[in-house]
Amino acid sequence: MRTRMVTFGVFAALALIFSYVEGLIPIQLGIPGVKLGLANLVVVIALYKVSWKETFLLAIVRVLLAGFLFGNLFSIVYSLSGSLVSLAVMMGLKRSGRFSVIGVSIAGGTAHNIGQLAVAMLVLESSSIIYYAPMLLVAGVLTGMVIGIAANEMLKRLVKINM
Amino acid sequence: MKRNDWILAVTILTAALAVFLLYSLSGNKHSESVTIRIDGTMYGIYDLAEDQMIEVNEGNTLEIKDGQVKMIYADCPDQLCVHQQAISKKYESIICLPNKVVIEVNSSSEDELDAVTQ
Does B84 contact A at CB distance below 8 Å? Predict the structure, then answer.
């Protein structure tokens, strides 16, 4: 029990740090909302290492902590919607057993972007921003692939953590 | 990467390409005006041909120059809209989420007439 809690704490801390580090990267691509999603690396690893309940909790804790520390109420709402859609899709694909970590992460990255776009459309009552869907899809595939490859390498080396 | 991973990636990219082509075929022309909406309600329509500065509720400032619109000031912390490139094509938009400001390039008036007569 104690190790579970400690591991969860370490995961949550890592996810939070990655959220912060990502904020330090000054690259702006000119497309709103496109970023690497470093914190998602921790979530993907958690997906394969801890139970789905803990992964779910981790994603929410990460978004709330990062949101209150570095963002505002709006960023929390958008992050949360993206994270939850992404997590739901990743859990589904992982359970299906047909995809590797990289495929799961690609789907997660894409779902994250589309989830946020959908919420933005609802909040703004404007459907025109669907214009950005292609860029966000491509960005989701690319960032998902990078995160997936990194997660895959880390999972190979994290065999000792098992819960 | 497994074979399924590649299929997934290629499917998503194809979908992206399809949506992109659909939009670029229908809206590649440069347009004449931009609409500004706040929280879904109309704020104003501005001519793209005329260089001007537009202040939107003090929270945002837009610049129209050389037929393109750019957000040059926003009072929000993330500044995503300010970092965004200038827009000029139909359907393109700049959005300031915290202030719920949507700037959208309009279809030209001719297109609207066409749509009505069709």
Answer: yes
Give the class (CATH, top level) of A2-157.
mainly alpha
CATH 2.60.320.10 at B31-107, yes or no: yes
- Listed by start position, the domains of chain A span 2-157
Q: Touching check for A125 and chain B: CB below 8 Å?
A: yes
Residue boundaries of the structural domains of chain B: 1-29, 31-107
Greater pLDDT, B112 or A97: A97
Closest chain A residue to B13 measured between Cα atoms? A138
pTM: 0.74
Q: ipTM above 0.85?
A: no
Is A156 an interface residue toward B (CB < 8 Å)?
Answer: no
Q: Calculate how close chain A gets to B36, using CA atoms only, in Å.
A: 11
Q: Tell me the H-state helices in A71-132.
A: 73-96, 101-124
* Contact by Cβ (8 Å): A88, A138: no
B38: left (phi over 0), alpha (psi -120 to 50) or beta: beta
